[in-house]
Write a structure and sequence with these properties.
By secondary structure, the protein is mainly α. About 70% of the residues lie in helices and about 0% in strands. The protein has one domain: Rhopdopsin 7-helix transmembrane proteins, CATH 1.20.1070.10. One of its GO terms (molecular function) is G protein-coupled receptor activity.
Length: about 325
């Protein structure tokens, strides 16, 4: 748990610092990537330390206690906000590529609405236990608190079903749908004449989409075991794992705060270059081979070239 806290804090802190640099700010998905890092950083700073301190002192979480309520709420709202942000990110990627216009970018106001909507969605999803519709109780592993998955009350059971559907299965379906449509667009849109810069830009798009897919897969794989075990407990009316076994899916879910920075470093060359510059104290951007893929270029050609050959030279939209 301490390693999750350590790597989660520094990984997401450096992610925010990197994404604030000029070469990243103009990207359509950068605000959403930053929102993911902020959500992960919030749970690392405001959620995990209190729980770790309580466990180290040998104290048990108590149903109805302030720490239990806070633990369940902050864990839930950041988790729901993250999957909401991932859903919005998949939609933004699809919309950007569908436009197929190098001058198109998602308006700042739209990104702000998406980010605020994700946080509002998370808040509304975790509000019912605070007002008596279900409650926050210690998990079977005792590491933190969560909604009462084993409740036999009909009203509370309805809330659990809505929470799992709206906080996991529906976003999962939407993400899968957007990514499938994005994949079809990338295969359908040709690159006329396949000039070097256009080919480079297309490869950059494909790498970006793969990075986003990896981010979403990591999040879903982290939370799927916990979600499945919890929902199974709701169906059966009791926990299906022992306290020792229950630690595995719970720790997998908590470790989700670590994966995104690692994925960015491995799969995003520009992110990696910026991070290295920050670490060594060199703030001067270095032009790299994929730099050409991040800007709009004018390709010089004879005035009647496209008309005579019935060809249209276009570039693809910037993610």
């Amino acid at each position: 748990m301490f390693l999750i806290l350590l790597f989660g804090f520094f990984g997401n802190l450096f992610t925010i610092i990197v994404l604030r640099h000029r070469e990243h700010r103009k990207k359509s998905i950068t605000p959403l990537m930053m929102n993911l890092a902020v959500a992960d950083l919030m749970i690392v700073v405001f959620g995990y330390p209190a729980v770790i301190s309580n466990n180290m002192q040998g104290q048990m979480m108590r149903t109805g206690g302030p720490l239990c309520i806070w633990s369940g709420f902050i864990n839930g709202i950041t988790g729901i906000t993250s999957i909401g942000t991932l859903t919005a990110m998949s939609g933004v990627v699809y919309q950007t590529i569908k436009r197929n216009n190098p001058n198109y970018s998602i308006p700042n106001r739209q990104n702000l609405v998406l980010i605020m909507g994700a946080w509002l969605y998370g808040f509304v999803a975790l509000l019912p236990p605070l007002i008596g519709w279900n409650r926050f109780v210690p998990g079977k592993a005792g590491l933190s608190c969560a909604p009462d998955w084993t409740t036999q009350d009909l009203v509370s059971t309805v809330y659990i079903v809505l929470l799992v559907a709206g906080g996991f299965f529906i976003p999962f379906i939407m993400i899968t749908t957007f990514l499938t449509m994005t994949h079809r667009l990338l295969r359908r849109f040709p690159v006329p004449l396949d000039p070097f810069i256009l080919a480079q830009r297309r490869r950059y798009q494909q790498r970006t989409v793969l990075m986003i897919i990896a981010t979403m897969v990591a999040f879903l794989l982290s939370w799927s075991p916990y979600c499945i075990v919890s929902f199974t407990a709701t169906i059966k009316g009791h926990h299906v794992l022992t306290s020792g076994e229950a630690e595995i899916p719970e720790l997998m879910a908590k470790a989700s705060v670590v994966y995104n920075p690692i994925i960015y470093i491995i799969m995003n060359e520009r992110f990696r270059r910026t991070l290295v510059r920050i670490i060594i104290g060199n703030n001067r951007p270095r032009v790299a081979p994929d730099e050409a893929t991040d800007h709009n270029f004018i390709i010089s050609a004879p005035r009647n070239f496209g008309r005579e050959n019935n060809l249209v030279i276009t570039t693809t939209a910037e993610i």
